[in-house]
Amino acid sequence: MIEQHKRCPFCKSRNIIFYVDALHSGTKGKCENCGATSGCIDNVWNWNSRPIEDALRAENDRLKIENEVLEYKYAEITCSMQFGSEHD
Description:
single chain; alpha+beta; 2 domains; 2 strands; rod-shaped
């Protein structure tokens, strides 16, 4: 099975070419749309490896869940305050 490469991190294009850079003795990826290039990589997995981007996505997902919990707790408090003031 051929592994599909990720889109360009800058312009989101899938038009990526991989070529051998004889001067630096390695393979590089280049976006044909915006011209962004990678450093030397071994394979598509290295092109797809974006640890900072992956960490930020995970943190964003965690914060979304935390925000939902806080919104629920806020709604509970607001409702209990309204209910308590109506029966005084």
